[in-house]
Amino acid sequence: MVGLKPTDLAPTAAVKFFGAGTAACIADLVTFPLDTAKVRLQIQGESKPAEGVAGTKYRGVFGTINTMVRTEGPRSLYNGLVAGLQRQMSFASVRIGLYDSMKQFYTRGSEEASIVSRLMAGCTTGAMAVAFAQPTDVVKVRFQAQVRVADGAKRYNSTMDAYRTIARNEGIKGLWKGCLPNITRNAIVNCAELVTYDIIKELILKYNLMTDNLPCHFTAAFGAGFCTTIVASPVDVVKTRFMNSSPGQYSSAINCAITMLTKEGPTAFYKGFMPSFLRLGSWNIVMFVSYEQIKRAMTRAQQSWESPF
């Protein structure tokens, strides 16, 4: 995003768009079990188990993963992976890949971007991404939240079955459930994630603390992941609860938040905080490091293709 050397060819918008989606898919493949554990911890306590089915108690990140592997098998950690990858290709490509272009739009092509311009760019691409990817997010959360019961019954049999079932039972609106909290969450996440990464990386390069290479990208990504988790966790919990809820359980996202506050107290908004941090921290590191390397590789390939001799 910043720190191009004079000899470097700036990556095109298409390179950033494709690179961001690919890097996000790589990050999802690596960190998906942590995300599933986070979802299970976040929805714990929202509903009573069905009659005759013992309720599963999850304790901590690795305790949740261990319980899921023991009771549902290792594949349960990757429930919703297909929808997750679909989400990242459509979602991250927009919110991350178009961030620099949107930043230039708000600064009118100026090299110096103010914090306000960066925040506006982050909010804009975050909100735009939800418009494309909300159905994939709903399906991903539903898959991650579903627990296989004793007779092997599952809420959804496949990704396409989930899309069809939700549309049939809840209408097309069901696929856009939680859109408002998701727009809020992603505006916050995008600002915290991209703007923090942008600023940390810029400062590291400005004061010559590191060169524009892997250690610099790793440090900036770790800082971005931590800041994002602190800011976005409450909205993320409400989004997960609301998107996973049965029809009529909550009248709105705000009603969901108020119900959580009155029934479970303020700490409910930070349920699954440790897996959120482990997931967002590791996801940011894998994604940003991959993104920077993919951008460079694709730009070099484009340069050699355009100038073969």
TrEMBL record:
<dbReference type="Pfam" id="PF00153">
    <property type="entry name" value="Mito_carr"/>
</dbReference>
<protein>
    <recommendedName>
        <fullName>Dicarboxylate carrier UCP2</fullName>
    </recommendedName>
</protein>
<feature type="repeat" description="Solcar">
    <location>
        <begin position="11"/>
        <end position="105"/>
    </location>
</feature>
<keyword id="KW-0496">Mitochondrion</keyword>
<dbReference type="GO" id="GO:0055085">
    <property type="term" value="P:transmembrane transport"/>
</dbReference>
<feature type="repeat" description="Solcar">
    <location>
        <begin position="113"/>
        <end position="203"/>
    </location>
</feature>
<dbReference type="InterPro" id="IPR050391">
    <property type="entry name" value="Mito_Metabolite_Transporter"/>
</dbReference>
<dbReference type="InterPro" id="IPR023395">
    <property type="entry name" value="MCP_dom_sf"/>
</dbReference>
<keyword id="KW-0472">Membrane</keyword>
<keyword id="KW-1133">Transmembrane helix</keyword>
<dbReference type="GO" id="GO:0005743">
    <property type="term" value="C:mitochondrial inner membrane"/>
</dbReference>
<feature type="repeat" description="Solcar">
    <location>
        <begin position="212"/>
        <end position="297"/>
    </location>
</feature>
<keyword id="KW-0677">Repeat</keyword>
<comment type="subunit">
    <text>Homotetramer. Adopts an asymmetrical dimer of dimers functional form.</text>
</comment>
<keyword id="KW-0999">Mitochondrion inner membrane</keyword>
<keyword id="KW-0813">Transport</keyword>
<comment type="similarity">
    <text>Belongs to the mitochondrial carrier (TC 2.A.29) family.</text>
</comment>
<dbReference type="InterPro" id="IPR018108">
    <property type="entry name" value="MCP_transmembrane"/>
</dbReference>
<keyword id="KW-0812">Transmembrane</keyword>
<comment type="function">
    <text>Antiporter that exports dicarboxylate intermediates of the Krebs cycle in exchange for phosphate plus a proton across the inner membrane of mitochondria, a process driven by mitochondrial motive force with an overall impact on glycolysis, glutaminolysis and glutathione-dependent redox balance. Continuous export of oxaloacetate and related four-carbon dicarboxylates from mitochondrial matrix into the cytosol negatively regulates the oxidation of acetyl-CoA substrates via the Krebs cycle, lowering the ATP/ADP ratio and reactive oxygen species (ROS) production.</text>
</comment>
<dbReference type="InterPro" id="IPR002067">
    <property type="entry name" value="MCP"/>
</dbReference>
